[in-house]
Inverse folding.
């Protein structure tokens, strides 16, 4: 099924938040580092074998280079932004990715139907699948990425370690080989000592990865990791290695052409992770000095040269406090966090990849690579921030932050628009938000501002109504999870002042009648303004009634004026909900009288939910670990629910006897659906 | 002379309640809790007090007593139930200091059963008027602490007085109901009082908006006053409405049922449809009633009110273009459509938990109140059934009475089939909605978002029912029925019927092949789109969803002074 999309339709579908020209948003790609002649032809038409934000990202560069684009989409993505942006779009199958975005025959068919000359795989999906590269080679289509052989050898974590060792790269102690079964895993774990990490041989991105601190966790983790690996990558092989506690994750970006030239670009630090998945990245790293940087770069380049690597790739290292670095893996694709490297080097990595695939030669030398300033990237996931669970539904409100100065300090690489569906089938990453600054502080400050003014609201089930902004607070700051910002004296003052101003403005609005009766009321209005004493002298709030962003200025005594963005989320029956510092607060505003009388209002008893286990999110049941009549201990595994490729173990919150099980493996469950019920406890 | 109008307020009840051990007024005054506030002029006489001062002092004492209602003990009992007193409620409802009270000193005149020795000033109801955000409304609030809020002759007359005044000047009446029922000692006088109120409810209907807040028990004959008013709101866990209480139900029907199950907020907002909304507690209920009044014109002589807004009338919402799922069998939430069209996304939904297959409520567009009626595809595909027809019909008639434009969003697959519906009178009840739309003379704007099938297309404010502006989105499907069903009927006589039937029985192929073929080629073009209706002028325009708000607001301006000649009749004969 082929769909040709006319330009006019595209324009109509284009949401307001979408910025058509990549250059407008990112820092100069007119940079002198790139000595390519714009007239040198690359391809006429390329197909992007991906979806979401990365597909949109590639399409932007292709458009800039005058290349026609073909998007592929599954049934669930027919209205995706990448489909609207591309010149042509081809449906490749039903929503599950193994039937669409991983469906090689259908994608090959799409390439042939549209006459695309090359394929950019983005990341994830087929980007590291050497079979795909091989099948493209067979029909003479260029793959915008590394060659099949290099990909196959580096993509496999076990083999890549052997190669790294051969190329003279430092490696971590571990077992170089596939783990056969649980017993084997236990044996290896014992021989290298706890903690150990179990990870998918084929994978990346934190999926199929488990850390085990004891035998029990190895047994449990082995099962889950191999299942996850199987469903994510179609390969359940695992390997085991020593887990380096408290490491820094630093990676080197490489670009290599087909003529044996390999350049290493400045490093990215991706140490803030959650479930071993990167959340915040920055470039450069504060941890590296120029000597280490050079040593890491040279080792990385040596590895690439050793296997004849071509295109963009990334070598990941773990760096300890003494700046000893160990090879972790090589990613044979464009990385999610590539925008920060682009920010500080001024390079367009996607453009480089396309030119390399079109047999062009890198015109730069290693000495030409310089970098300037600092860049930070946050990944924006559709998630419940307190539970780290995917939030699925319609993006009811979505406004991206924009650069406030002509430095283009804010860049949004997103694949959604207001009204998009966040589907259960794919990764919940909806945007990569990058900011730039002359210094690290400035970049972080810009990031804070951008996050504060990023409006995301997902309409899903009641418990998951809020969209998440994964913020700077993760990682070490929140070992037990994000429970929201605890208000201190200052932030309470800020919130309360803005809430007061919002209330006053709403209250005045309630009196502001525009029909005939208004004359009488205007008097009443001015009287009210006079009699009430608001702290206008020091707090100003700029807010269009009921809109999302409240820009407020604070001047506390003789301090400098401070600008704060607070979000207005929703009106409540009495009061409203505001978001300050990434946390939502329900604010009740009572009149004097209401406050006086509120003491008589009774607290309504809440429904006791401890007797039942509810599905935390929409998804499918993978397994049920208990039977009716079983007595389970607190913390015992009850069931596993999978959504968005993440398996979540549901555990008993207390000791109890299982009364009834409402679901069976394979069932689809909605959020808050009752899965297991316990008997009334006798004690 | 003394200035009678300038008596300042006595101390508020809640602060008094801290001194619950004090019971008599004298004690209160002595303990300096309740300060009699009299603005006295410097004494002109050598000694003694003037006659005026004497009367004033008595008035002051009576007023203080009236403010105490049934006394501190009963006030405390009321508070312990999580309920506020009648006076506290009125003060919350009205703008601070705006209450002008009537009949503060009224007492009952009953002498039987020792009632002549048992009088409470005010007789169990507070009446008067005041403002809500500056707009005049009349109010009565029954006081459960005084004779259990029971209705005596004088109590009824106080209510009648404000109802008459409200009609006279054209202002809404809000009744805060909290009453044990009829004052049994007064016998038929009490019943007469109810009837007097009912009569006024009926006469006021369609003249001024009438709103009932049920904030405590409301049983027996008393329930019919709220039933006659335009909107009934309840407070969860503390309010009950029933014709006969659990005891009688037990005696007559041998059914065991609690007050809450029989006539609580849940029963009436989910099952019976008697109440239009329920709120958590007294404070929230009253605050939301204030918000609600803001939507209504003060009487049928006024246009819908216009309030300031920052939401641009020309705002285009591009995400609306994607709101209808690509798969036409997939549901979406009509409330998402509504909140994107209206000002600030603020929608006051009426009866949100009853007959959820239709969504009704008030909103504003460019500041002016509009009413919204929308089929809800999320529930039973948005089908029209008995309950949803009745729910929407009464709402449409209210809006027509009070000059509130009606915006109808249509996605309806038809009327619900089945014996349950037919035998319970879907014909009769469906006719109510049809009647209400056909009769309405206010601006009527209709947007077909997806399905508009069969008779339900006609009913949902179609062009043929004097619809002013009828739009369809490109996703509209206007037809007698869905494509598949249509084929089965249209081609029923294509061949000799017996032969077709025989063949059908033979291999079951002929008919299904024919259907599949026709459906694939032709029917989507003939039926599943808005073009045929637009070609006939039944649809004024096919518009992009994103511009719907802009277009509706423009149309509302055009239709602002719409007038339709009304044929004289005594009154109509709406199907009931």
């Amino acid at each position: 099924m082929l769909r040709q999309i006319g330009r006019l339709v595209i324009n109509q579908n284009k949401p307001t938040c979408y910025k058509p020209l990549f250059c407008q948003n990112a820092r100069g790609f007119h940079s002198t580092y790139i000595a390519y002649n714009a007239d040198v032809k690359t391809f006429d038409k390329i197909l992007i074998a991906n979806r979401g934000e990365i597909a949109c990202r590639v399409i932007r560069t292709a458009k800039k280079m005058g290349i026609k684009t073909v998007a592929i989409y599954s049934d669930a993505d027919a209205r995706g932004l990448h489909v609207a942006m591309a010149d042509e779009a081809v449906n490749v199958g039903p929503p599950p990715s193994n039937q669409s975005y991983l469906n090689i025959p259908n994608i090959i068919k799409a390439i042939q139907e549209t006459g695309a000359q090359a394929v950019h795989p983005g990341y994830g999906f087929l980007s590291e699948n050497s079979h795909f590269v091989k099948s493209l080679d067979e029909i003479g289509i260029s793959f915008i990425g590394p060659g099949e052989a290099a990909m196959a050898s580096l993509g496999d974590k076990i083999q890549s370690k052997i190669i790294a060792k051969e190329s003279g790269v430092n490696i971590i102690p571990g077992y170089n080989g596939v783990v056969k079964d649980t017993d084997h895993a236990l044996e290896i774990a014992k021989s290298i000592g706890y903690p150990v990490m179990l990870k998918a041989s084929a994978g990346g991105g934190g999926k199929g990865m488990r850390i085990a601190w004891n035998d029990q966790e190895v047994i449990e983790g082995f099962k889950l990791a191999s299942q996850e690996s199987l469903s994510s990558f179609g390969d359940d092989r695992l390997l085991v290695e020593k887990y380096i506690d408290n490491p820094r994750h630093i990676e080197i970006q490489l670009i290599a052409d087909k003529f044996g030239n390999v350049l290493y670009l400045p490093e990215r630090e991706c140490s803030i992770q959650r479930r071993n998945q990167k959340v915040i990245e920055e470039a450069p790293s504060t941890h590296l000095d120029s000597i280490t940087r050079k040593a890491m770069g040279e080792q990385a380049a040596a590895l690439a040269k050793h296997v004849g690597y071509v295109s963009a790739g990334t070598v990941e290292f773990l760096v300890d406090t003494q700046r000893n670095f160990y090879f972790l893996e090589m990613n044979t694709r464009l990385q999610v966090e590539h925008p920060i490297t682009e920010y500080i080097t001024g390079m367009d990595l996607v453009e480089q990849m396309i030119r390399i695939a079109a047999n062009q030669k890198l015109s730069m030398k290693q000495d030409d690579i310089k970098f300037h300033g600092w860049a930070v990237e946050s990944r924006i996931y559709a998630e419940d921030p307190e539970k780290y669970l995917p939030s699925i539904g319609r993006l009811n409100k979505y406004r991206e932050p924009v650069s406030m100065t002509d430095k283009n300090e804010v860049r949004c690489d997103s694949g959604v628009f207001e009204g998009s569906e966040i589907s259960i089938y794919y990764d919940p990453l909806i945007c990569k938000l990058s900011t730039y600054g002359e210094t690290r502080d400035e970049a972080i400050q810009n990031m804070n501002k951008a996050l504060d003014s990023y409006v995301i609201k997902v309409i899903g089930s009641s418990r998951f109504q809020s969209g998440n902004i994964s913020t700077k607070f993760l990682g070490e700051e929140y070992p037990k999870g994000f429970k929201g910002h605890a208000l201190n004296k200052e932030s309470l003052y800020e919130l309360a002042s803005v809430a007061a101003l919002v209330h006053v403005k709403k209250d005045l609005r309630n009196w502001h009648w525009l029909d005939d009766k208004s004359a009488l009321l205007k008097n009443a209005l001015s009287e009210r303004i006079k009699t009430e004493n608001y702290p206008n002298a020091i707090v100003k709030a700029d807010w269009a009634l009921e809109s999302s962003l409240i820009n407020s200025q604070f001047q506390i005594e003789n301090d400098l004026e401070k600008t704060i963005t607070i979000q207005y989320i929703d009106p409540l029956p009495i009061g409203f909900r505001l978001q300050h510092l990434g946390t939502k607060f329900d604010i009740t505003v009572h009149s004097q009288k209401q406050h006086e009388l509120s003491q008589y209002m009774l607290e309504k008893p809440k429904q006791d939910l401890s007797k039942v286990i509810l599905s935390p999110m929409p998804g499918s049941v993978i397994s049920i670990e208990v039977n009716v009549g079983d007595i389970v201990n607190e913390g015992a595994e009850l069931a596993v629910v999978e959504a968005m490729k993440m398996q979540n173990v549901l555990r008993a919150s207390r000791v109890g006897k299982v009364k009834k099980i409402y679901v069976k493996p394979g069932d689809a469950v909605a959020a808050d659906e009752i899965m297991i019920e316990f008997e009334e406890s006798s004690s | 002379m003394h200035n009678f109008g300038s008596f300042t307020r006595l101390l508020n009840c809640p602060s008094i309640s801290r001194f619950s051990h004090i019971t008599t007024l004298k004690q209160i005054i002595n303990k300096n809790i309740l300060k009699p506030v009299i603005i006295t002029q410097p004494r002109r006489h050598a000694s003694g007090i003037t006659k005026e001062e004497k009367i004033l002092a008595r008035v002051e004492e009576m007023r203080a007593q009236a403010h105490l209602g049934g006394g501190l003990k009963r006030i405390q009992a009321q508070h312990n139930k999580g309920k506020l007193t009648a006076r506290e409620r009125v003060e919350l409802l009205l703008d601070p200091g705006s209450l002008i009270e009537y009949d503060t000193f009224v007492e009952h005149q009953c002498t039987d059963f020792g009632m002549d020795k048992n009088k409470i000033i005010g007789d169990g109801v507070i009446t008067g008027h005041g403002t809500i955000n500056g707009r005049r409304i009349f109010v009565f609030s029954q006081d459960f602490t005084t004779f259990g809020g029971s209705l005596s002759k004088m109590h009824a007359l106080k209510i009648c007085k404000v109802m008459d005044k409200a009609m006279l000047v054209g202002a809404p009446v809000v009744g805060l109901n909290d009453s044990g029922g009829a004052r049994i000692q007064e016998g038929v006088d009490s019943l007469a009082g109810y009837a007097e109120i009912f009569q006024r409810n009926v006469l006021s209907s369609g003249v001024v908006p009438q709103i009932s807040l049920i904030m405590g028990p409301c049983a027996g004959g008393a329930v019919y006053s709220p039933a006659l008013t335009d909107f009934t709101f309840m407070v969860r866990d503390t309010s009950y409405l029933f014709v006969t209480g659990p005891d009688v139900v037990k005696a007559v029907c041998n059914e065991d049922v609690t007050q809450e199950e029989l006539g609580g907020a849940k029963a009436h907002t989910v099952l019976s449809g008697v109440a239009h909304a329920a709120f958590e507690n007294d404070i929230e209920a009253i605050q939301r009633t204030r918000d609600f009044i803001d939507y209504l014109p003060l009487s049928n002589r006024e246009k819908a009110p216009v309030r300031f807004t920052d939401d641009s009338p020309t705002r285009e919402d591009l995400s609306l273009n994607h709101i209808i799922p690509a798969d036409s069998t997939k549901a979406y939430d009509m409330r998402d459509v509504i909140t994107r069209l209206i000002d600030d996304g603020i929608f006051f939904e009426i009866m949100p938990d009853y007959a959820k297959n239709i969504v009704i409520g008030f909103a504003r567009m460019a500041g002016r109140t509009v009413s919204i009626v929308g089929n809800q595809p999320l529930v039973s595909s948005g089908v029209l059934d008995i309950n949803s027809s009745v729910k929407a019909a009464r709402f449409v008639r209210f809006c027509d009475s009070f000059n509130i434009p009606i915006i109808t969003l249509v996605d309806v697959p038809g009327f619900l089939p089945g014996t349950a519906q037919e035998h319970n009178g879907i014909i009769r009840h469906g006719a109510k909605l049809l009647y209400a739309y056909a009769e309405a003379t206010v601006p009527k704007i209709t947007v077909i978002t997806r399905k508009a099938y069969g008779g339900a297309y006609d009913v949902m404010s179609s062009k043929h029912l004097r619809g002013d502006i009828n739009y369809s989105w490109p996703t509209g499907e206007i037809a007698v029925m869905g494509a598949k069903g249509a084929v089965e009927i249209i081609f029923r006589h294509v061949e000799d019927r017996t032969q077709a039937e025989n063949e059908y029985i033979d291999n079951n192929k002929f008919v299904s092949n024919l259907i599949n073929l026709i459906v694939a080629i032709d029917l989507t073009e003939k039926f599943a789109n808005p073009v045929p209706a637009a070609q006939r002028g039944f649809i004024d325009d096919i518009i992009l969803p994103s511009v719907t708000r802009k277009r509706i607001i423009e149309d509302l301006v055009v239709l602002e002074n719409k007038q339709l000649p009304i044929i004289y009749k005594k009154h109509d004969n709406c199907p009931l």
